[in-house]
């Protein structure tokens, strides 16, 4: 057993393969946060007055808030004045084609496995590449526009589709929602905007690839997806950052709106730099994601594979307003080394016959702490609402922790809520069995862990599932025995 | 006593019964056989009144009344009994209480006096003996922790206690070993009478060696494709269900 | 904390200390004083505190409850309630009225050598049973303010000591009756200690008279030495205008066994906390509970199980049936410390809502710091099982009765875990009458 323990320890040491730094001249503003900074960001983006006002309202509200304390993660106080709130690679102001993108940036994405030249890409995925505070390029735009699908950087949407942005911005996550959402609303820099018109099935996967590069910089992006009546979209999101010794803040907001009969599938593979094996550095990932099933028969699915970040704090949620609407949450969260995650979902049932499913798989290794926190609410009018939740934890090694905090509230006699949670470890007998059949220990562990996560992988788009599997194996390298 | 005419039923989007015609007279035992998924259990549950099925066409007359118009418990009170293929476990309710509640509910419905404690105990004792069951089982929760065989026996016990006019046995033989099968059949045979109709739904001919039917029907694809006397069951045993396709074509041709 | 909220209790406390000054030993006066200071410092919890999010104890702050210095039994109310509470004459019995022991109504059968069943005030008077350490209970948990308040006014309650190897042949019944008018409060403190290999069954019954509404702030401390076995029952029948806030602390050593059966029927607000510290190996703990609020009642059931050492098993089953505008809260935490390998913890919480105006909040929690453990929790809230309903109806039982049977069965599941026949029968009778299940 002790040798297996040793193997376990060793397995917990892992390499972060996206940790390089891109050397590029950046237009950054000085560190610190004030009304001036908020105005400066707005000015740099040449924003209309209403948006500046909205940012300022958010900022002023943020000043009245305290950082939440209810989560099960520990970190030293964040100095919000030490962070840089805007950093953009210096390049020509308007980009009309890929030829005008700085080759250094293209190289960066190439290295990350995300080639931005359309001919090199998977033909069915359109990518918006966000580098620090700005979007540098969005591919396949013409193809999408032919179908009436809008997919562009958020900053561009503010100018090109102001009425849409104004209508939906903050309509799901108001600027006053929580500490981190308020901060984001004040200083958000860029992100993606998607609009799927009535009856359109988006012809390809939309994807945003977020990269933090600059030092001491926070990233505050904002994504807004609106799916009109009867439309469908599948959206993917990926994230990486260089290895740096200091912690960097990432506070994003994602809002989804699904109208009648619309369906939005949102998948995330989050692989921000998790910090080194001593717990030094890494991204603080405080994210607010929420979807509103506004119309009858609408559907929103969140799928997330969370392998990165020093701290993950996110609860992708669905507000089930429309009758017969469906909310889903599938999650794999890995905490190895010193990583901490407090993640889960909220399903708020308001409409009749609404259904939600929650499948959460938490894997803890090293001294990682993994918490599932979820809330299921069946409101009074939600006749025949159904929820099924399953939260499973897998522990690898005896220094980590796995925690489950589900909140359930039911106000309707016809509501049905089922919650199951279990905790287990990678069984020695399982490893022994697989090794007896000829598998090396690491492969055996990977097989068991991947099997544990299978229900979540099954709902990921295929390219992502492969990526997720690989990531998980890397994350847990050296974790087991 | 029971007349089913052109009965169509569906569950969600799937049509399962596609025009069943069947007449069962008092005193008769009918066997309904057929391959898996042919609609046998659906037919049994449609007669008992399960709400998962939608009747899209046809009618069922029972003792001159519209059976499909009755509530589940009303059908039971009027004498329709279904012995379940998978009896339901109800933890916390004793068999004894359950049986007495059922008997008295039925009596109340029929404006009969409630059963006295003494009569109930005596009757229960007699029926338990018939089925070789221990009386301690009556203090346990309904079907909870019962083996497969015990559950089936318990179904037949309930049937004996409730004395229905029309008994429907849904795959009562499945999961029974030969000894249990004999006891269960004995229990059913004891209930055969000129006033009572019995429908035996089964996949295998084996049960029919013990409960000899007057008529045998073969259900396939939601329709009765062949009807005959007990020799039909033997023929099926011999040839399997594959020969049915010919039969179905023959009917279609008619 | 607004100072005025605790001020009223401070006045009452000063009066209490003065009244007690001639009889209380110095250590106790000091202990009460320290506890009062702690209560003032902590204040009455508000809904802003996560652990009190669903449970408002505002009435305590707005309308302070009065301590009862002496009781009168003249009008017969207490006696009538006592008759209602009695389960079996063969039980050992300690009766308290508004927090004060009533010797003439208490009864003891012959006890094995060394067994003590007496009231706390007598123990204090005798200066026996190392009370100082045990009464000095100070916690930093969510109930800390009420623990402090109880300690500040600590005066009476039950003291049970079972020496090594003794297994009591009959249960001990503790009955707490509230009858005094005038918005009164009592702070019972029960100390139960079982020596190595000993065994006992204890029943706590709480009830009171209709009237102004009163407040019971009870604490029970249980210590189980190696291989000790305690079967603990709590029947909460307080009248429906009252507040009942109670904490039970259980400290278990190696191979001890503890079974808790909590039944909550009464009170306007009942908050019951059970804290199990499993400080040994091979311990088995079972926590079962049933709460059935109706009308405007709020019942908050909270359990915390600390698996501090390896190889312990815990089983937990809590069920709730909520009607009218009632609110139910279940909060169950299982905490598995790093040392507690081979823990096996199972928790299940189920609730039935009978009215659309009723609300249930459930928060089962697992906090696990050891890897070789089996922990599961399940929570289901919802309607009666459709299959079971169909089955009953297909046997001729009309839907309303079938529904009642299933509600009864749902609750009866917990009642059947009670091993003492008199207690079980008492509960069955309540279930039958509260849900109108006819004798068929």
UniProtKB/TrEMBL annotation, chain A:
UniProt xrefs under InterPro entries: Fe-S_cluster_assembly_SufBD (IPR055346), SUF_FeS_clus_asmbl_SufB (IPR010231), SUF_FeS_clus_asmbl_SufBD_core (IPR000825), SUF_FeS_clus_asmbl_SufBD_sf (IPR037284), SufBD_N (IPR045595)
Domain SUF system FeS cluster assembly SufBD N-terminal residues, every copy: 146-202
Domain SUF system FeS cluster assembly SufBD core as annotated: residue spans: 210-452
Family according to the record: Belongs to the iron-sulfur cluster assembly SufBD family.
Protein name: Fe-S cluster assembly protein SufB
TrEMBL record, chain B:
InterPro entries named in the record: AAA+_ATPase, ABC_transporter-like_ATP-bd, ABC_transporter-like_CS, FeS-cluster_ATPase_SufC, P-loop_NTPase
Protein name in the entry: Fe-S cluster assembly ATPase SufC
PROSITE patterns registered for this protein in UniProt: ABC_TRANSPORTER_1, ABC_TRANSPORTER_2
PANTHER family (UniProt xref): ABC TRANSPORTER I FAMILY MEMBER 6, CHLOROPLASTIC
Family: Belongs to the ABC transporter superfamily. Ycf16 family.
Primary gene name: sufC
ABC transporter domain sequence ranges: 2-246
One family name in Pfam for this protein: ABC_tran
Keyword annotations of the record: ATP-binding, Nucleotide-binding
Species this protein is from: Aporhodopirellula aestuarii
TrEMBL record, chain C:
Taxonomic lineage: Bacteria, Pseudomonadati, Planctomycetota, Planctomycetia, Pirellulales
Annotated SUF system FeS cluster assembly SufBD N-terminal domain residues: 6-173
Top-rank taxon, per record: Bacteria
Protein name: Fe-S cluster assembly protein SufD
Domain SUF system FeS cluster assembly SufBD core: 182-410
A UniProt-annotated Pfam family: SUFBD_core
Organism: Aporhodopirellula aestuarii
SUPFAM superfamilies documented for this protein: Stabilizer of iron transporter SufD
NCBIfam families (UniProt xref): sufD (TIGR01981)
Family: Belongs to the iron-sulfur cluster assembly SufBD family.
């Amino acid at each position: 057993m002790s040798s297996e323990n040793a193997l376990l320890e060793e397995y917990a040491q892992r390499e972060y393969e996206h940790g390089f730094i891109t050397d590029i001249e950046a237009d950054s503003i000085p560190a610190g946060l004030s009304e001036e900074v908020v105005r400066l960001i707005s000015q740099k983006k040449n924003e209309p007055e209403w948006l500046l006002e909205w940012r300022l309202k958010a900022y002023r509200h943020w000043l009245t808030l305290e950082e939440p304390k209810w989560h099960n993660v520990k970190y030293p106080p964040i100095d919000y004045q030490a962070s840089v709130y805007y950093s953009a690679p210096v390049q020509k102001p308007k980009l009309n084609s890929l030829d005008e993108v700085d080759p250094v940036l293209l190289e960066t994405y190439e290295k990350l496995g995300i080639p931005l030249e359309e001919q090199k890409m998977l033909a069915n995925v359109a990518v918006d590449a966000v580098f620090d505070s700005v979007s540098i390029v969005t591919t396949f735009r013409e193809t999408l526009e032919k179908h009436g699908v809008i997919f562009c950087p958020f900053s561009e949407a503010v100018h090109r589709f102001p009425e849409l942005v104004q209508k939906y911005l903050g309509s799901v996550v108001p600027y006053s929602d929580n500490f981190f959402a308020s901060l984001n609303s004040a200083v958000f820099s860029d992100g993606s905007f998607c609009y799927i018109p009535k009856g359109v099935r988006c012809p390809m996967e939309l994807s945003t690839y977020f990269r933090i590069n600059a030092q001491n910089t926070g990233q505050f992006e904002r994504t807004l997806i609106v799916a009109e009546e009867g439309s469908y979209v599948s959206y993917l999101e990926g994230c990486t950052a260089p290895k740096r010794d200091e912690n960097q803040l990432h506070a994003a907001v994602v809002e989804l709106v699904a109208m009648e009969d619309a369906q939005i599938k949102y998948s995330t593979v989050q692989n921000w730099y998790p910090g080194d094996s001593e717990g030094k550095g890494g991204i603080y990932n405080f994210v607010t994601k929420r979807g509103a099933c506004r119309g009858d028969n609408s559907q929103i699915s969140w799928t997330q594979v969370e392998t990165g970040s020093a701290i993950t704090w996110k609860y992708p949620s669905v507000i089930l307003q429309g009758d017969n609407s469906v909310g889903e949450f599938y999650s794999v969260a890995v905490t190895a080394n010193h990583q901490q995650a407090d993640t889960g979902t909220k399903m708020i049932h308001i409409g009749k016959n609404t259904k939600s499913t929650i499948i959460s798989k938490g894997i803890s290794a090293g001294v990682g702490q993994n918490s599932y926190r979820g809330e299921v609410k069946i409101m009074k009018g939600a006749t025949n609402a159904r929820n099924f939740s399953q939260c499973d934890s897998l522990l690898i090694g005896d220094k980590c922790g796995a925690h489950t905090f589900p909140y359930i509230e039911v106000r309707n006699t016809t509501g049905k809520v089922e919650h199951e949670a279990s905790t287990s470890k990678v069984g020695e007998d399982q490893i022994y069995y697989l090794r007896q059949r000829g598998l090396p220990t690491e492969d055996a562990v990977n097989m068991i862990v991947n099997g544990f996560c299978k229900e979540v992988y099954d709902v990921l788009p295929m390219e992502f599932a492969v990526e997720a599997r690989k990531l998980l194996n890397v994350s847990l390298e050296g974790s087991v025995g | 006593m029971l007349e089913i005419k052109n009965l169509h039923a569906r569950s969600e989007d799937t049509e399962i019964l596609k025009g069943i015609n069947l007449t069962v007279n008092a005193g008769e035992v009918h066997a309904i056989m057929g391959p898996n998924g042919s609609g046998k259990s659906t037919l049994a549950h449609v007669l008992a009144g399960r709400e998962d099925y939608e009747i899209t066409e046809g009618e069922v007359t029972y003792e001159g009344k519209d059976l499909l118009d009755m509530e589940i418990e009303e059908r039971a009170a009027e004498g329709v009994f279904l012995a379940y293929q998978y009896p339901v476990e109800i933890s916390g309710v004793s068999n004894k209480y359950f049986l007495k509640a059922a008997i008295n509910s039925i009596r109340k419905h029929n404006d009969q006096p409630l059963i006295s404690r003494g009569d109930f105990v005596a009757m229960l004792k007699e029926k338990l003996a018939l089925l070789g069951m221990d009386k301690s089982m009556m203090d346990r929760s309904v079907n909870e922790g019962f083996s497969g065989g015990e559950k089936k026996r318990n179904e037949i016990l309930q049937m004996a206690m409730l004395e229905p006019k029309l008994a429907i046995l849904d795959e009562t033989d499945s999961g029974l070993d030969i000894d249990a099968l004999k006891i269960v059949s004995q229990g059913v045979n004891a209930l055969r009478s000129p006033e009572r109709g019995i429908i035996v739904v089964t996949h295998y001919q084996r049960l029919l060696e013990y409960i000899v039917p007057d008529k045998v029907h073969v259900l396939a694809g939601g329709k009765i494709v062949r009807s005959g006397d007990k020799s039909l069951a033997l023929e099926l045993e011999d040839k399997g269900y594959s020969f049915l396709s010919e039969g179905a074509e023959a009917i279609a041709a008619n | 904390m607004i100072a005025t909220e605790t001020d009223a209790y401070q006045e009452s406390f000063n009066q209490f200390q003065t009244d007690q000054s001639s009889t209380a030993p110095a250590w106790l006066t000091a202990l009460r004083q320290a506890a009062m200071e702690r209560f003032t410092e902590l204040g009455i919890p508000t809904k802003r505190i996560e652990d009190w999010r669903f449970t408002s104890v505002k009435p305590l702050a707005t309308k302070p409850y009065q301590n009862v210095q002496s009781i009168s039994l003249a009008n017969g109310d207490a006696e009538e309630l006592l008759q209602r509470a009695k389960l079996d004459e063969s039980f050992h019995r300690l009766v308290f009225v508004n927090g004060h022991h009533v010797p003439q109504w208490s009864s003891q059968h012959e006890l094995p050598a060394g067994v003590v069943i007496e009231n706390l005030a007598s123990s204090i008077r005798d200066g026996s049973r190392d009370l100082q350490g045990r009464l000095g209970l100070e916690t930093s948990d969510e109930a800390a303010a009420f623990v402090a308040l109880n300690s500040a006014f600590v005066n009476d309650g039950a003291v049970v000591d079972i020496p090594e190897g003794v297994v009591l042949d009959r249960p001990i019944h503790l009955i707490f009756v509230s009858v005094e008018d005038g918005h009164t409060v009592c702070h019972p403190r029960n100390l139960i200690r079982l020596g190595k290999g000993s065994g006992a069954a204890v029943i706590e019954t709480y009830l009171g008279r209709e009237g102004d509404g009163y407040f019971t702030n009870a604490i029970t401390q249980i210590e189980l030495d190696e291989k000790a076995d305690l079967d603990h029952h709590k029947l909460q029948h307080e009248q429906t205008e009252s507040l009942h806030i109670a904490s039970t602390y259980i400290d278990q050593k190696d191979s001890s066994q503890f079974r808790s059966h909590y039944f909550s029927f009464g009170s306007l607000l009942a908050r019951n906390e059970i804290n199990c510290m499993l400080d040994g190996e091979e311990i088995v703990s079972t926590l079962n509970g049933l709460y059935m609020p109706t009308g405007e009642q709020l019942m908050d059931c909270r359990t915390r199980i600390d698996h501090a050492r390896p190889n312990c098993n815990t089983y937990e089953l809590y069920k709730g049936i909520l009607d009218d505008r009632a609110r139910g809260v279940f909060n169950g935490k299982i905490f598995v410390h790093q040392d507690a390998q081979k823990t096996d913890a199972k928790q299940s919480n189920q609730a039935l809502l009978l009215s659309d105006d009723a609300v249930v909040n459930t928060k089962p929690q697992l906090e696990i710091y050891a890897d070789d453990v089996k922990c599961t929790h399940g929570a289901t809230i919802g309607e009666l099982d459709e299959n079971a309903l169909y089955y009953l109806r297909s046997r001729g039982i009309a839907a309303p009765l079938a529904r009642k049977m299933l509600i009864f069965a749902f609750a009866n599941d917990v009642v059947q875990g009670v091993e003492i026949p008199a207690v079980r029968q008492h509960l069955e009778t309540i279930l039958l009458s509260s849900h109108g299940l006819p004798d068929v």
